[in-house]
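Sequence design from tokenized structure. All designs in this work follow the same two-part layout: the structure record, then the generated sequence. An example of the structure record is given first.
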């Protein structure tokens, strides 16, 4: 199969020219051919200039010419910031991206003209190199974090929130699904804040305008027809809107929501996002909308200044919240974290004692919640097949951190299969089941 050809028109100043060179270099590296004429091109990219009125006119004329002679045009460069103006004159353009938007231009090209894949020559599969098994993959939607939790130094290392535009994320997700991935695990430092830095910019995805926002992302990922699991979600009010998508079965009824504590003074000392939300009320409301929702969380025991009664409040919260999966850490002073300077640091032996009490308290709750699922028929995803049978996960189990479902004797199954099982037994982490 011959490589796809791209026509390229570069207008404007030397900075724009350098941008064009970068885009062309990336396209060539990916195996595209650059076409010197409109006729031989499968698609044309116009790198525009918007410096003065004459340059704007020249750019708009060039877009018009490319549309007339080729028909499939992606616009980038300075004039891309005035998308409305371009679309008003040339509504047929496939995509408009701004200056320095290299990744966006490449994503747009990939979307409208997939890169050539030559299995005998390419060392890279289209979905990139994954370190996870073939049937699940992590989907990173943003980097960095706008919060300044006092126990955490991530923002000082990774900077403020920097979201990937939603069409780029969706293209990666779609490629993963096409490559056979059955479950996507959405990760970031703060998943529910997704898109805030981009002012929730709308983007075109498969002919629809979707916002770079947590809800739109969940909804669009739900259309891929594979399992989608949300991690690191903070309980902002808008998270409520995603729960109906879980109830409908569009995304997995699973929220990984790191509460870290329940006492309001400690949450404020931690400077936690959404520290003032009434989480118990929210959890109750979520379960009314989606009774099957699995809630996973993490907590810190022995945060500086934590009193015995504040710790007891945390245990009471656990009893009330009835979370399914919970991790807990004794507070440990990370080098550079602001919380290290807080008064009344908790002695190590008390931290450890509180951690042990926490785990004993929660493991009873987790075990009881698993017992309630015995007798149910559920869909599970096969992770591994060993001599004794198949090892699977239910919708309630994220890989590596949650439990497993063991199906004795089911050695004929394959990794990545979805099967129906009846849940027969459980301890506080894992379940045992038979095929139905
Ligand atoms: S712990 Fe707080 S500061 Fe650290 S990444 Fe999470 S939300 Fe951001």
């Amino acid at each position: 199969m011959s490589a796809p050809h791209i026509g390229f028109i570069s207008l404007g100043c030397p900075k724009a020219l350098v941008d064009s060179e970068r885009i062309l270099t990336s396209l060539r590296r990916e195996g595209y051919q650059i076409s010197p004429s409109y006729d031989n091109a499968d698609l044309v990219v116009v790198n525009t200039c918007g410096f003065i009125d004459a340059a704007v006119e020249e750019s708009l004329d060039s877009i018009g010419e490319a549309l007339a002679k080729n028909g499939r045009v992606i616009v980038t460069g300075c004039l891309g910031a005035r998308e409305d103006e371009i679309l008003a004159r040339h509504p047929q353009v496939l995509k408009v991206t701004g200056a320095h938007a290299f990744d966006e231009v490449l994503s747009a090209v990939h979307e409208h003209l997939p890169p050539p894949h030559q299995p005998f020559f390419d060392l890279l599969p289209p979905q990139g190199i994954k370190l996870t098994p073939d049937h699940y993959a992590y989907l990173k939607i943003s980097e960095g974090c706008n919060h300044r939790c006092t126990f955490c130094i991530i923002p000082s290392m990774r900077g403020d929130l920097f979201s990937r535009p939603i069409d780029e994320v969706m293209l990666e997700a779609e490629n993963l699904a096409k490559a056979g991935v059955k479950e996507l695990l959405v990760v970031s430092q703060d998943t529910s804040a997704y898109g805030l830095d981009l002012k929730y910019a709308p983007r075109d995805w498969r002919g629809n305008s979707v916002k770079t926002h947590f809800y739109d992302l969940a909804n669009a990922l739900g259309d891929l027809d594979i399992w989608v699991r949300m991690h690191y979600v903070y309980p902002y009010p808008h998270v409520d809107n995603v729960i109906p998508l879980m109830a409908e079965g569009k995304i997995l009824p699973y929220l990984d929501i790191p509460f870290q504590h329940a006492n309001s003074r400690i949450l404020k000392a931690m400077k936690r996002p959404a520290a003032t939300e009434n989480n118990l009320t929210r959890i109750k409301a979520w379960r009314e909308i989606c009774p099957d929702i699995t809630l996973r969380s993490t907590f810190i025991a022995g945060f500086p200044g934590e009193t015995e009664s504040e710790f007891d409040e945390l245990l009471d919260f656990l009893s009330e919240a009835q979370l399914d999966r919970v991790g807990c850490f004794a507070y440990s002073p990370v080098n550079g974290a602001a919380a290290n300077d807080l008064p009344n640091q908790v002695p190590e032996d008390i931290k450890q004692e509180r951690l042990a009490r926490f785990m004993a308290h929660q493991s009873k709750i987790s075990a009881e919640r698993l017992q309630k699922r015995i007798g149910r028929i559920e869909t599970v995803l096969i992770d591994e097949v060993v001599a004794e049978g198949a090892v699977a996960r239910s919708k309630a189990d994220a890989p590596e951190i949650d439990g497993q479902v063991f199906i004795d004797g089911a050695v004929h199954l394959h990794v990545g299969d979805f099967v129906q099982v009846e849940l027969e037994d459980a301890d506080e982490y894992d379940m045992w089941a038979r095929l139905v």
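The pocket of iron/sulfur cluster is lined by residues 145, 147-149, 152, 154-155, 189-190, 273 (CB under 6 Å). We note this feature because it recurs in several other targets discussed in the main text.
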